[in-house]
Amino acid sequence: MNMAEKYVIGIDLGGTNIKGALLGFQGNIIEKYEIATLANAGPEVVANRIVQVAKILIKDLGDRVAGLGIGVPGQPDQSTGSVIFAPNLRWRNVPLIPMLKPSLGFPMFLENDANAAALGEKWCGAGRDAVNMVAITIGTGIGGGVIINGRLYRGSSGSAGEIGHTVVLPDGPQCNCGNRGCLETLTAAPALLRQAQIAIDRGRTTSLATVENLAARDVFKAAENGDGVALEIIGEMTHYLSLGLANLINILNPDLIVVGGGVSRAGELLFRPLREKTLACALPSAAQAVKIVPAQLGNDAGSIGAGAVVLQELDLL
Ligand SMILES: [Zn+2]
């Protein structure tokens, strides 16, 4: 196979939008296309829209497409090509790949979106030189993907890397998973907003009180400007995040941890304290071996990662 003339398609299937990308074998984006998912219309409609995105990206390149990967916001079953559970799409046991097969002739693969994002960073992002790495994505929730010896590690039932649901505060805030005090409930965007609201309700002096439609980035912006409440919130967030990362480092001894998602765009305001606290907490030999860096793929992480899934499955990564 002449790799220079081959392409892969990556589909980032989200609850709101389907983002597709036609990619070269170096991870370079040739073309992008995005449409609404229309999840409410049901799996049949969503499958048709994936076909529509793929066909627009393929144009006349049909026989030069090595395959298509789909990152799903939930749990896929790679053996059947089904999505077992995807709460954002309200899907249970949807045979997605079999539904796409009649319309698209090339190999197709499913992967959990956080796992796909980790593979994407490994392929052409912050993890290019990593051997053992963990990529975590912090947004409205926390996702994680684990790469061991250069390959994605899915675990025994596909749920490896769920760092968001490791408990870092016993009896802490209630989590969607049914447990309490999960990392996600203390460090994802909603946690920052909850803390800000508590401070505002208590009448504390903070510039956050005057911001309309408060978002996580406003908390970071206020912290940058020296707002005491915002600095406290970031301090607490990095405290819990460092506990989660230190546990991960002690268990897996990775050479790299990549932190992505909206919250990670806060830059050194987040990364400096996060590195200090995490490395102080992890075992010295493991701490010395690991770097903690921001993700590089930004908004395209999902579709590039889905493309990387194709290369891994075809043993080309
Ligand atoms: Zn949880």
Describe this entry's structure for a reader.
With 317 residues, this protein is α/β, with parallel strands linked by helices. The chain has two domains: 3-112, 2-Layer Sandwich (Nucleotidyltransferase, domain 5); 126-296, ATPase, nucleotide binding domain (Nucleotidyltransferase, domain 5, 2-Layer Sandwich). The protein contains ten helices and 13 strands. It has helices at residues 43-58, 96-100, 113-124, 183-187, 189-201, 216-224, 228-252, 268-281, 284-289, 301-313; strands at 7-13, 17-24, 29-36, 65-72, 75-77, 82-86, 91-94, 108-112, 133-138, 142-148, 151-153, 256-260, 291-294. It has a five-stranded mixed beta sheet with strand order 3-2-1-4-8, with helices on both faces. The protein has a five-stranded mixed beta sheet with strand order 11-10-9-12-13, with helices on both faces. It has a three-stranded antiparallel beta sheet with strand order 5-6-7. Helix 3 packs across helix 10 (301-313), helix 5 packs antiparallel against helix 7 and helix 6 packs across helix 7 (228-252). The longest helix has 25 residues, at 228-252. The two termini are 14 Å apart.
